């Protein structure tokens, strides 16, 4: 493995090299001497000039870059289709694609599980616990591998990191609740932002997660007051943020040069009154003691797919004054209070730049310029037809903006983004040729949450896996920039990613696999004993190395082919030269499947652990 160590040494000056067992974030005291930058300090690959038009097909690489922003991953077939189209036309086609829903897939997987239990003699399959996280993550992976509504899936993923609920809570056993909530984000991806805000506010999963489900009005004599959790987060995280903004996302300043808060504790208390009285909107089949939902019914008995209902007797009466001067009148229905409050938030001047900035971060770049933010904020304000909050128009504007599409911006210091672990893995899986598992379904159970600090709908808090303004100590912070994803890129997760990528590129290591374990009393073990843990739904997906072995004899061709789908023409001279130097060393037949296959595996591995793959421009 001399060639491997040579390569890792070669990229040490442009990558993040970690070998300590600390879990502190890079730059937090255990990374002295480590320089974190986006990639090579050179502006591009001198030998091939893939983006500026010389050498390889610049349109193909630009399309790969476009699809890396617009989708969860793209293979060469899709890149070739889209490169011959106007991007705006393709986006319009995507907007009309039918929604690939998550809940129905979770239910299908769960039914398969119960059928498996029944077929293997399990005494009472209906007593099985679930559906839960295994079904949720498997359904999400399957949908993202087969869905045709590619942009919608990417935007819903982005929204799930903005309107956070998490199965890293008591919702972990409620896959239907989580999936139905995610489906609302899928619908909202091309809907209206106000509708997203309303749907989220009334969803029982959010109500349970941020504790405005069964949240009663004040009873002062019992020292009982409305829960303020959701009231705070709907302002801080979902709409207006902490400080008054200009339309370009910069802070407004008072006469002393300080940022101006958007709300205070009094506003939180008033907003909390509005979100009282919400309770279960429906009951499920577990409820035998009542035919109707009622305020105070616990989550065991509720139908998660029905919006929370308003129970007027538990709703705070009287006038509510929010954001200092907007009055919600007394003596109206509780749902009318909520609708008016959401309308006030939706029409606040902060919302267009606040939301535009976050969507740009999730799709294109971590540090959009104020001009970029303002251009998108203007589309948020008016889609051209007098409509505010049109998500389809907003997403299209983000993806087609000059800062997203003009290659000249790529070489500016602020024009990059660290791909988060889920997105990196999905790009590998969707971008490369693969051998699909038997059974017609993709599964996944990789231990992301512990190893790479991320799993779908599994954020540690309502603040997501990372904050939009996170600045890792060092060069990024010193440059006045942010890099949210570096929050979960520490000495532990970075090494674990290297190990995961190595496993994905070995013959014994699959890209995707899964299966749910259950105790099978009829299982015959190897030693002849009866009873033990069995698995259903087992399937594996591997990289199809044979699709690339014809290129292995000429490393340059192999490198170029992988550059198309993994790094979109951004493979640096340093990484290219290291590959050129080391791949020819793999040239003998001592490998189990031949040296050609070993060259392919090694090239894929070394590119996927390179900074050129991790950081997209």
Query: What's the gyration radius in Å?
Result: 26 Å
Task: Give the CA-CA distance, first to last residue.
Answer: 31 Å
Spans of 5+ residues with little confidence (pLDDT < 50)?
A: 1-55
Structural class: mainly alpha
Q: Report the portion of residues in β strands.
A: 5-15%
* Range of helix content: 40-55%
* Cα shape: globular
Largest beta sheet: strand ordering:
6-8-7
What is the average per-residue confidence, as pLDDT, rounded to a whole number? 87
The number of E-state strands comes to: 9
Helical run tally: 25
Q: What summary fits the major beta sheet?
A: 3 strands, antiparallel
Annotation keywords:
single chain, 3-stranded antiparallel β-sheet, globular, 617 residues, two-stranded antiparallel ribbon
Write a short abstract of this structure.
Helix content is about 40%, strand content about 5%. By secondary structure, it is mainly alpha-helical.
Tell me the layout of helices and strands:
Layout: H1 2-10, H2 58-70, H3 76-83, H4 87-95, H5 103-119, H6 133-146, H7 150-160, H8 175-188, H9 193-202, H10 204-209, H11 229-236, H12 265-274, E1 278-279, E2 309-310, E3 320-322, E4 326-328, H13 334-346, H14 351-363, H15 370-381, H16 391-400, H17 402-405, E5 417-418, H18 421-431, E6 434-435, H19 448-451, H20 475-478, H21 491-504, E7 512-524, E8 530-543, H22 555-567, H23 573-582, H24 595-608, H25 611-614, E9 615-616
Antiparallel strand pairs: 1-2, 3-4, 5-9, 6-8, 7-8
């Amino acid at each position: 493995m001399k060639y491997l160590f040579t390569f890792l040494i070669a990229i040490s000056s442009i990558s993040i090299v970690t070998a300590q067992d600390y879990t502190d974030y890079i730059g937090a005291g255990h990374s002295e001497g480590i320089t974190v930058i986006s990639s090579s300090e050179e502006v591009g690959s001198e030998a091939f000039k893939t983006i500026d038009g010389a050498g390889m097909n610049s349109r193909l690489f630009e399309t790969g870059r476009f699809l890396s922003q617009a989708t969860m991953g793209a293979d060469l077939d899709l890149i070739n289709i889209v490169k011959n189209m106007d991007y705006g036309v393709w986006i319009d086609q995507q907007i009309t694609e039918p929604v690939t829903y998550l809940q129905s897939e979770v239910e299908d997987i769960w039914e398969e599980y119960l059928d498996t239990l029944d077929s293997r003699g399990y005494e009472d399959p209906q007593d099985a616990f679930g559906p839960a996280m295994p079904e949720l993550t498997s359904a999400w992976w399957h949908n993202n591998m087969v869905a045709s509504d590619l942009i919608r899936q990417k935007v819903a993923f982005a929204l799930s990191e903005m309107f956070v609920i998490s199965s890293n809570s008591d919702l972990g056993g409620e896959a239907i609740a989580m999936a139905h909530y995610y489906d609302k984000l899928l619908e909202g991806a091309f809907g209206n932002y106000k509708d997203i805000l309303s749907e989220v506010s009334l969803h029982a999963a959010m109500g349970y997660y941020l504790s405005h489900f069964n949240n009663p009005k004040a009873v002062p004599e019992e020292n009982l007051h409305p829960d303020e959790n959701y009231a705070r987060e709907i302002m801080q995280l979902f709409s207006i943020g902490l400080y008054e903004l200009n339309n370009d996302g910069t802070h407004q300043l008072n006469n002393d040069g300080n940022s101006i808060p958007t709300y205070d504790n009094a506003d939180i208390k008033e907003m909390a009154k509005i979100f009282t009285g919400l309770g279960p909107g429906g009951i499920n089949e577990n409820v035998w003691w009542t035919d109707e939902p009622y305020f105070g019914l616990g989550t065991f008995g509720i139908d998660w797919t029905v919006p929370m209902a308003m129970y007027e007797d538990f709703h705070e009466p009287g006038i509510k004054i929010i954001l200092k001067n907007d009055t919600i009148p007394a003596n109206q229905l509780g749902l009318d209070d909520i609708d008016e409050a959401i309308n006030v938030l939706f029409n606040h001047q902060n919302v267009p730049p606040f939301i535009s900035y976050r969507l740009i971060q999730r799709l294109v770049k971590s540090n959009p310029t104020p001009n970029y933010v303002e251009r998108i904020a203007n589309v948020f304000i008016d889609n051209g037809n007098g409509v505010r909050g049109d998500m389809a128009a907003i997403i299209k504007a983000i993806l087609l903006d000059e800062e997203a599409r003009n290659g000249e911006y790529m070489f500016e210091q602020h024009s990059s983004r660290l791909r988060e672990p889920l997105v990196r893995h999905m790009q590998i899986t969707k971008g490369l040729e693969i051998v699909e598992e038997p059974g017609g379904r993709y599964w996944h159970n990789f231990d992301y949450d512990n190893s790479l600090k991320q799993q779908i709908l599994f954020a540690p808090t309502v603040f997501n896996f990372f904050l939009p303004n996170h600045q890792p100590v060092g060069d990024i912070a010193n440059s006045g920039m942010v890099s949210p994803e570096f929050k979960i890129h520490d000495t532990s997760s970075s090494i674990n990613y290297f190990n995961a990528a190595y496993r994905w590129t070995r013959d014994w290591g699959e890209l995707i696999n899964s299966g749910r374990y259950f105790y099978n009393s009829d299982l015959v073990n190897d030693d002849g004993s009866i009873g033990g843990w069995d698995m259903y739904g087992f399937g594996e997906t591997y990289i199809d190395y044979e699709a690339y072995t014809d290129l292995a004899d000429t490393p340059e061709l192999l490198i170029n082919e992988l550059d198309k789908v993994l790094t979109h023409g951004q493979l640096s001279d340093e990484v290219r030269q290291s590959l050129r130097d080391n791949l020819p060393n793999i040239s003998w037949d001592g490998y189990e499947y031949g040296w050609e296959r070993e060259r392919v595996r090694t090239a894929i591995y070394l590119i996927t652990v390179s900074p050129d793959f991790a950081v997209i421009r």
